Amino acid sequence: MNNNAIRRRPQRSAPVILHLAGFCLLALCAGPVVATRVIAEEASSAFRTTPPKEHRLKVTSNRHAYKIRLGGTVDMDNTLTRHHATFHVAFQPNVSLTIENTGDTPVVNPRVVTNGKRRWWSMRKLLEEILAGAKDDQERALLIWDFVRKNRHHDDPIFVNDELHDPMKMLNVFGGGLCDDAGAVGCSLLYNAGFNEGKFGRNPKVRHLHGHVMCEVFLAGAYQFLDMDEDAFYLDRENERPVSGDALARDHDLVKREHAYGPIFQGWDVGEKAAPLFGTDDGAGLRVTSGHQIDITLRPDEKLVFRWDNVGKFASDGPRGRRFWGNSLHTYSPRLDEKQYRQGASAHKDVHAVTGDAQRSRLAGATKDAFLAYEMRSPYAVCGGRVRADFRGAHASDRFEVSLSLDRKSWKSVWSHSGKGAIQARVDLDEQLQVKQRPAKYRYWVRVALGSAAPDSAQLTALTMETDLMTSPHSLPRLSLRDNQVEYTDETDEPHEVTLTHRWRESGNVIPPRPPEKPLFPQPDSIVRASTFQFQWPKVAEATKYHILVSRTPDMKLCYRTCFDTVIEGTSHGSPFTGMFSPDVDYYWRVRPQNAHGVWGEWSDMWRFRWDGPRVPVDLKYDLQKNGEMTITWKPNPRGPRPVAYEVFGSDERGFSISRKPHQVRGLGEQASNLLGRTTQTQMRVVSAATKDPNMNRSFYRVVAVDEHGSESGCSDYVELPHPHVVSRPVTRALVDQPYRYQLKTLRSIGDLQHRYTSPNQTYWEKEDYGYELLEGPAWLKLDGETGLLTGTPGRADVGDGDVKIVVKRRFPNEVKPTDQSGRVFQKTDARFQSSHEHRFRIQVGPG
User: Fold this and answer.
1) Which of 91, 309, 673, 724 would bridge 746 by S-S if both were Cys, CB 3.0 to 4.6 A apart?
2) What is the pTM of this model?
């Protein structure tokens, strides 16, 4: 089922595509456009290899199991390093796997599976593999997230239609694409896995951020944002469940404390690069695309040759780049006897078999209009092809022609010749197959004309059609070190024969580094009492990098959070953010080393630890007093150790991160500490005209709990104070003939850093300023509507009391203008963006 009826993918305009490519590809994951083959060859100079080895067998049943042993010390699994925008394979032992029909019967869906993995030929089989052993719905959703992020990469959008949105095509064929492709794939997988309206009350959705697209799943009564492209999910303040895109748009700090864009650690400021993509104007909708299956029927003498390298070819809808992919080969050499040519051809006219030299069959045309046609069909995208044909003519006017069709209706001649004697056609089809135009091609037809000047004078003596295919190396049935359990299956009950040929190479001179035997910190089964800490382990001989993984389950199936599933160069790793762990929870961690040749060692033993400290304060509120001052209140978390003190932080930045010292904020530069103070109470005054504390009179506040050991919780959710809200103390006395001056001051918000498709792209688009209007007051008072400065000089006739009423209204001067291409999306006309504050006081004019 191609479920585009559920939701068609909206067409992206050219400027949007350019911005997506420029932002996602260049700013965040720039890398050379290189092929798998090139990566392997450059990195493999250190590996001494054996000549290619081969295992060939004939199978005459529709199920057969066998073993192949891969020797040496390296394989694809222990030399593969995953990046956000590519994969690096230091040594690829797999050369090819050929599945060839060497019998007389068409073979339906011949398949090879190694070690029980990569049965990805249908949605059902794919989900069975992904979800095997899942304990609950939360784990099922995260297993889908984990599978997609590990088996695709961020790359050029080689097709901008729905082509890369089908999970079968993405994971088996293309292997990479933009964020919207990953989001659509995730949405389709989640929907088909049962995370839909029928079971959970709501469908998954694809969230359209401004600079990014990703899917969300509805689970446990709320949406969860699962980023399969930027390689992240974002836990709630209790470190328990992933939060929604709405929660991330509201509070960027949840994004800033994680690590995104793949496992290669790029520093703790990476989260600040991801956070601006979330905004209050994001859109969302259901997008489900599915229906493709990896099915093929091999005719006699037809074969698939799976390869793990590439020849530089890929399908696309224009001039695109590609960083990691594979090319395989589909070949058909039809038998030119009476029975087989009819069985394999899609059409024929006035053609029959004759016996040639050495009793070899050949096909002859009985008339000048004789022809036969063959369909070349594959579940993998076509990215090139060739035709080799040998003819023999008896007359000078015998005519031979090779034509190509993409729809079986319109045909284009790609080669023709007239004459007698032996004639060869060697035709390259790359351009005629339109592999650089959409849609992607999965089949085409080749027609061979045998225009005989006399009966049987134009003859076809040999024909081979080859198709270059685009295949994801991850999906192919690869061999791994030591014994491999291999299973062959097909769906043909009649007698048949298939020949399987595995070719590989081995290398044993590079020894993987040994993992550390024991950690330095935390020690196994220990309890950590520290606000922040570093995981530490001994240096491993010859290791240049390490992969650290922290999980909440001893099977280590899923990472706890992506900032603790990273590849680093040192022997320690820790977050600068407090509250990254929760009390009374078992955590498990392990490390594996990598040497300079790109070879990974085994994982270390799994080590368990606990963290002890307070959980985040909850239920933050503000209390507005009659004098205009405000106090915030909170409650200690009902779970975890009891706090003995609290620290309060304030900022005008929505979604701010707390800091006790000067710090850098993306888009703002260096900022001072935002710590307001420490208290043992569960309240603190935060707004008052009678203060000079720089962290008073802010629009947003957070609270951190501290226990008796000095361990700090993570920061709480923020409480948002009303803004505008005038916090200045009015000047209530004026004198005759003397200038009066009162500068209104209000709580203000600078919003948060957000991305737009308009220059300067990333800025504080929702930074507020305020308009001031004098609704009531003495005639001598004048108000500057832009600055809020109230001035005037009263005369003798103005002596006495007068009421003043000023309204302060919120505005967004930085926002994208309506005349901009995308401006209509960002106009702050919704009620949620509107706010105003009335400021009232009495002014008394006395004699000078």
Assistant:
1) 724
2) 0.93
